[in-house]
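Per reviewer request, we include the raw input and output of the structure prediction for the construct analysed in the revised manuscript.
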Amino acid sequence: MTNLDKISDLYIKHILLEKGLAANSLESYTIDLAGFVDFMVKNSIEYIELVDTTAILAWLIHLQKEGLSARSRARHLITIRGLFKFLIKEEIINNDPIKTVEIPKTGLYLPEVMTICEIEKMLSIPDITDPRELRNSAMLEILYGAGLRVSELINMKVQDINFDAGFVRAFGKGSSERIVPVGTHAKERTLEWIKIGRPQLLQNITSKYLFVAREGKPITRQGFWKIVKRYSLKAGLERNITPHTFRHSFATHLIEGGADLRSVQTMLGHADISTTQIYTHISKRHLLEIHKKFHPRG
């Protein structure tokens, strides 16, 4: 039995003794938990400590692809939420990865994700003959190609991208550093920006930042948010598209394509990764292969 199997059995015994559920309700709990455990184990997550928010969202996406309605997915989520509340109470774990996943009255909430077609529309909007538009195009390609947070993108330095190796270096929360692969599209557009657009904007000014605005300073979060909003409207997308939507789309498209969760979690720089050694065994070469194989623009 895996650690997750034992944890599941422990929770079933708890609700049997404490809640006195009817046989059919207990059966529903058991089936929901078994499905959850089976999904995690198939994705090489056999310990409860390795289940984080990214894994929870991947599981919900899986349920959606299986054809479960919002109501059914909400029921599954409530079951797993109860599991984690129990584990926190019993001091078996310290962090609850499910607390940020909400279930509004209208059904199950999942982060906003663009389709690959919508991504392509957004990326085709900038007029790359204009240096500012070329910069914006490169930023969108990197944002989606590497799944970066907007703060990581706007603060990138010129030396943070390695064109030969196909990686960018990102500095996340708490100054944590990670290396993320980028595909051919992002590399080519960014190289074009560095060679053509960036010198035109900088004139005789020097700057350490990769994507520059006035006087060589980095673009502000608000400024880039406005760029994304303008392009989403031009692309005819009526939903609320933000820079973070690109990050959610990056992760979702990789997972839907068949990428393993540990690799996606590593590329996202999820906070829980730094607390477990298992992710340190994923090599840069492996991440590059995963990105090339499963990312739509890899």
